[in-house]
Write a structure and sequence with these properties.
Length: 279
C-alpha cells in the first residue's frame, strides 16, 4: 500500500484545509510507475501525467489499483491505470478503481443501501483506465471503475478495454465492463470516451444498478454486453430504481451478445429493465 504521503508545499492553505486528514493527502506526479495499490480513507488523491499504475491484483477485495473509501476524493488529471485485476467470489472483486463503501459479501449485504456521512467522489479529467478486469467464480462487477454510494464526474479521458465477468475467467457473469454505478451512486458524463469494454451481464460500457447516470456529452461506443452493450439499467430487490437521462453525447456501435446459455442479447445500445431511461 502507498499511504500517508505529505507534499503540502504544492497546495495553497485553503486547499490543505479542505483535507480532513493531512497525512492521507497523496500527490502523484511525473515519472512514477507503481505496481502497488493506492488506498485512501477520508483523504484526497491527485493523479497527474506520466504516472502508470499497472499489473496490480487483489483477491476477495476491491480496487485493485485505487481503493477510495467513504469521504475520500480522487482526481484523475492524467496518467494510466492498466492491467489490474480485482478477483474473488460474489461481490468481492470490483474495479481497478473502487470508490465508496465496502459493499459487504453476498447479495443481501452488498445491495443494502447503507447510511453514509460523506460520499466518496471521483473526478476524471484525463488519462485512461484500460485493460483491467473484475473476475471470479460468481458475479463480479465494474471491470474498470466501480462506484458504491459514490459520485463520479467524467470530464475527459477514456475508460476502455476493461472486462467484467465471463470473458476473462469463464466463470461468473459481471456487470459494468467499463463503469459500475450502484447503491445510490451517480455518474455525470460530460466528455470523454467509454469504449471497447465487455460485461458478461448488464452494461458492457456502463451499468446503473440502483444508481443514476446523466449523459451530457462524450461517447459510449464499441462496447459489448449480454444485456445492454452500451448501457445497462436495472434495479435489485426492490431498492431504489435506477435512472439514466441523456441530454447529449453519443451512444454508437455497441453490441448485445448471447451468454454461454444462449440467453440475453437484449439492447445493443441500451437495455432498461425495472428502471427509467429519459431523453
Amino acid at each position: 500500500m502507498v499511504q500517508a504521503v505529505r507534499e503540502l508545499d504544492r497546495y495553497s492553505k485553503s486547499e490543505i484545509e479542505e483535507c480532513s486528514e493531512l497525512l492521507k493527502y497523496i500527490y502523484v506526479n511525473n515519472g512514477l510507475i507503481c505496481s502497488e495499490s493506492l488506498f485512501m480513507n477520508s483523504g484526497r488523491l491527485d493523479l497527474w501525467g506520466g504516472v502508470t499504475i499497472q499489473n496490480t491484483a487483489k483477491i476477495n477485495n476491491y480496487g485493485s489499483a485505487i481503493y477510495s473509501q467513504e469521504g475520500s476524493a480522487v482526481n484523475l488529471f492524467d496518467g494510466v491505470i492498466k492491467n489490474c485485476v480485482a478477483a474473488g467470489s460474489e461481490d468481492a472483486g470490483q474495479g481497478a478503481v473502487f470508490v465508496g463503501n465496502n459493499p459487504g459479501s453476498g447479495s443481501s449485504g452488498s445491495w443494502k443501501l447503507k447510511p453514509t456521512n460523506q460520499v466518496a467522489s471521483l473526478k476524471m479529467y484525463g488519462g485512461s483506465v484500460t485493460d483491467n478486469a473484475a473476475s471470479g467464480s460468481s458475479v463480479v462487477d465494474g471491470g474498470g471503475i466501480a462506484l458504491n454510494q459514490a459520485s463520479m464526474d467524467f470530464y475527459g479521458g477514456e475508460v476502455s478495454y476493461n472486462h467484467a465477468g465471463t470473458q476473462i475467467t469463464g466463470g461468473g457473469a459481471g456487470d459494468g465492463g467499463g463503469i459500475m454505478v450502484r447503491c445510490g451512486s451517480y455518474l455525470d458524463l460530460w466528455n470523454g470516451e467509454i469504449s471497447h469494454n465487455y460485461a458478461g451481464g448488464y452494461g458492457g460500457g456502463v451499468v446503473a444498478w440502483n444508481g443514476d447516470v446523466n449523459i451530457h456529452g462524450g461517447q459510449i461506443s464499441e462496447n459489448r454486453g449480454v444485456d445492454g452493450g452500451g448501457v445497462g439499467i436495472t434495479a435489485y430487490n426492490g431498492n431504489a430504481a435506477s435512472y439514466v437521462n441523456m441530454y447529449g453525447g453519443t451512444i454508437i456501435g455497441n453490441e448485445a451478445i448471447l451468454d454461454n446459455n444462449s440467453s440475453g442479447g437484449y439492447g445493443g445500445g441500451i437495455c432498461a429493465g425495472s428502471s427509467h431511461f429519459g431523453l
